[in-house]
Amino acid sequence: MKKSIAEKSWTVMVYMAGDNSLDPEGSLDLKEMKKAGSSDDINIIAQFDRAVGHAARRYYLRKGGIVTGDAVASLGKVNTGDPASLEDFIQWGVKNYPAKHYLLVLWNHGQGWDDTDIYADERHRSLRRLTSTTRHSLFRTGTRKAMQKAISSIEYRAILLDDNAKDFLDNQEMQKVLANTAKSLGRNVDILGMDACLMSMAEVGYQISDSTSYTVGSEQTEPGSGWPYDKILSSLLKNPSMSPKDLSTLIVDCYLASYPEKEPVTLAACDLSKADKVASAVGALAEALKSGLGDKALQQAIQGVRNKVQSYDVRDNIDLLDFCSLLAGAGVKAGIKTACQNVIASVQNGYVLKQGHKNKSMQHSNGVAIYFPLVSVSPLYPKLEFSKKTGWDSFLDAYLEAIRSR
After folding, report:
1. CATH 3.30.70.100 is held by the domain 8-273
2. Residue among 283, 309, 307 nearest 395 (CA)
3. Are 147 and 156 in contact (CB under 8 A)?
């Protein structure tokens, strides 16, 4: 008779898509995980797909020793952008390292809601915009932020980008993977951590709210070193009975404490059980704004707020609460002001559990961003569950057309 595997308090599963500029940072993060190491109460596992020339490996991280000594499987070439690869890793982790709670971390570049296929052109022609020298330099620096800026002209999108496979995980795929995981568990995934840029967006949270209890992510880009895994996991080891809510807020605290005041970083923990209330409030605001666009004064008020609202390295992303706060104070009609205040209340009354920032350039961040393009609405945006629920895309289209026609 096969011996059953003991269930621990937590299993931390880190899915590391390092077949890109972040390869060097992945090795450092595995060492951070080893500083804490698994215990009788906590499992720490990872899958690290490296740049060309290295096989992808799975690890059970123990305290002390060398990282290679913790490898438990060699997978060869892996397409980390394939949802089947992510799902296989999760199923492997749940089967072999069962726990009462699961923290799943997606480790990579990130681009919020945007599912644009950035590899489409590269499949047909070489990527000439980056010289081999520039690519080598970016690879060596290994920073999420540096790479993000350098290739902004080709629109790096989504999450879990695999440069070798020319693939990535879009939001629809992420939704399906997490839904399948929740179904197999018989309950929600406790925490989805996104150690990646720009992922704390209303659109992303709503997309996975049926299968995930909490998220931890950033409105802004992340420095290359990302999360301080040694600090986070050491704290969890000291209190393995920590609740998912408490762990999600702990991650925010540890992350912010790991960077100096001058570093423009943000991080937020969100309770997705409140995501529907946020979406409903945004929907009411979208309806009020769209119906009032015949008023030139409202157009001007929105435009003025959009010009000064807190935004991020991708300028189409703005802080949702800062937008609503500025608009409510811009002399708009009572109905719109009330709609703005309702959005603020929906976020502050439980959706954002904890958030913070460093650097004055991020001072008006409140934990959750939303899409507000300056030129045109992406044709992919209406496909999101958030758009279908709120009609925010319809408002954006109407607003951009109105100011073009003035």
Report:
1. no
2. 283
3. yes
The 10s digit of each residue's pLDDT in 312-365 is 999 999 999 999 999 999 999 999 999 999 999 999 999 999 999 999 999 999
Question: Does residue 267 contact residue 218 with C-beta atoms inside 8 Å?
Answer: yes
Nearest one of 200, 109, 117, 225 to 161, comparing CA atoms: 109
Task: Report whether pLDDT(242) > 90.
Answer: yes
Rounded CA-CA distance 103/193 in Å is 7
Whether the CA torsion 244, 248, 251, 257 is positive or negative: it is negative
Tell me the whole-structure pTM to 2 decimals.
0.89
Q: How far apart are CA 194 and CA 226, in angstroms?
A: 10
Provide the H-helix boundaries in 187-319: 202-207, 229-238, 244-257, 275-291, 296-308
**77-101: per-residue pLDDT in tens?**
888 888 999 999 999 999 999 999 9
Quickly count: other Cβ atoms within 10 Å of residue 234's Cβ: 16
Residue type, 297: A
169, 160 contact by CB (below 8 A): yes
Three-state secondary structure of 126-171:
CCCCCCHHHHHHHHHHCCHHHHHHHCHHHCCCCEEEECCCCEEECH
Q: Can you read off the two tokens belonging to residue 143?
A: 């920073």
The larger pLDDT score, comparing residue 24 to residue 112, is at 24
DSSP 279: H
d(CA 230, CA 34): 7
Q: Which is it for strands 99-107 and 369-371: parallel, antiparallel or unpaired?
A: unpaired
Question: Residues 6 or more apart from 224 whose CB is under 8 A from it?
Answer: 22, 25, 141, 142, 143, 144, 145, 146
Q: 176: which 2 tokens?
A: 């399906």
Record the tokens describing residue 306, joined without a space. 């959009």
Opening angle at CA 156, ends 178 and 122, nearest 5: 105
Going from N- to C-terminal start, the domains of the chain cover 8-273, 276-405
